[in-house]
Amino acid sequence: MVLAMTVVLSACGGEKGGAGAKFNIGMATDVGGVNDKSFNQSAWEGLQKITEDTDAKTKYLESKGDADMEPNLNAFVKEGYDLTWGIGFLFSDAMKNVATQNPDANLAIIDNVVELPNVASVTFAEHEGSFLVGVVAGLMTKTGKIGFVGGMDIPVIHKFDAGFEAGVKAANPNAEIVKNYTGDFGKPDLGKQAAATMYDAGVDIIFHAAGGTGNGVFNEAKARKDAGKEVWVIGVDKDQSLEFGDEITLTSMMKGVEQAVYKISKELIDGNFPGGKIVELGLKDDAVGLPETSSKNVPEDVLKKVEEYKAKIISGEIKVPTAPADK
Predict the structure, then answer these.
(1) Predicted confidence band at 327 (pLDDT cuts at 50, 70, 90)?
(2) In sequence order, which ranges of 38-187 are alpha helices (DSSP H)?
(3) How far apart are CA 96 and CA 119, in angstroms?
(4) Which of 27, 72, 214, 233 could form a disulfide with 210 if both were Cys (CB 3.0 to 4.6 A apart)?
């Protein structure tokens, strides 16, 4: 049951001793900040590992909103950085502008595709991994009501939503799914409010794909658990049980952002930057899926079902939708 995302890492063995010492790699965060405990933090941890393994110099700039994205990318490019990352779907327009205006600069984007020769684009099959945590939720709900809290109403979050819904329905056709798109990735209060409304309505498991906003979902779940209520959260991007604890984290939908940032950055240092290419990572690459810690709260028979569904997705027997019916 271990989806340790070793495929990406296996190509990236440590090369301590200054292999990347002359390289400077920058990263502009999505909204939510570098300490969002999920998406941006994963990307930054990938760059920290690059520094640890190769001595490359790495730095981040935080984007508080869309207006910061292009200036942040430009700041690294104008300083002559060897690679500049835009972390998130929302960087698409800013990335196109900066890459077009600076054809000699190397840039990379997570969660979107920018078809320019100096941009590496990394996308994930979030819908595939979300299907698997949907199976867990469908089999483990006791109330028959399950929640989804999304961040912004954009295609990449639709993939989480669609996959999760499909997984829940595959495992438990009678389950009811309640959804709330908060419209933001950096407002925990909105996540807490959304979770409170869902738990009050009888939902007992919530999957969030909301970045820092999702931290509020965990905060609400902890308050409920402390009051004796049996509620759960399914985390996203990282193994969020490590941050929020096993008592409220049922499992997480891991997404290999850290590994992808490491992989592309290492390829740059090695002289193999995939400019103009799209790197797509999914279940077949172990780039999405459940963490090892799932066995703490998810019974063995449920994990076995997850493995069965995983095999069917990889073989093509199950085609997971990328957009929910209501979008």
Answers:
(1) confident
(2) 39-54, 66-78, 92-101, 126-140, 155-171
(3) 9
(4) 214
